[in-house]
Write the structure tokens for this entry.
Amino acid sequence: MSRTSKADIFAALQSDILRLQGFKPSSHIQVDAGLGPLIEAFPNATFPLGAVHEFRFEKIEDSAATNGFLSGLLSNVIAEHGTILWISATRTLFPPALKNYGLQPDRCIFIDLKNQKEVMWAMDEALKCGALSAVVGEVNEIDFTASRRLQLAVEKSQVTGFIILPEEKKINTTACVSRWKITALPSTTIDDLPGIGIPKWKVELLRIRNGKPGVWELELRKGKFEQSINPSAETLKRNTESIQQTA
């Protein structure tokens, strides 16, 4: 058997495994995601579409940071005229602020419900609708059974799902293909002028199927994510540890 044929077999097997784990190609959403250096952490350097992603936060300010980072991500991964459904029972997001992250508010439909049960039901139903590009759900907690139900829904519809929830001392195992933690960092000033500068986050990709977890300090410049010019020593250390673990 030639080397070429072996490589083809391995590539086909890897593709089959990725599809079984929820990484399926999508025809209506971009795959670049404008993530810059972070894109190499994903299988085949492609952001997982038609999958459910989990975002955790510790503090209120980190909740706002998560919303900002996710808005920047959504502005890149959905189609030019795609529609997003944002579901919550305790929404604090200010829609006009989405423009700061490249996302036009009129591309989002906000659904404010009474409780967690209604949010989960609405998200489950929304993820089955192929007319949507993405669904964001803000919840208090989620177990494996509920997350698996959401993942099965997106594997059929190819809608991309995002779950935002507070970090717990003991995090439940979920069926989500990735787990993130976004922390707010002081923004990068523009020409050393006072005031609000360029958005900046510490982005921790804690878990990603068949990918490479790591930590990055990213800035959002002209709608695209770029590596911070001066990352902190902590981030450099965490990245080194991640490389050593995957080596």
The first strand starts at residue 52 and ends at 57. Residues 26-30, 242-247 have pLDDT under 50 and may be disordered. The chain has one domain: 31-246.
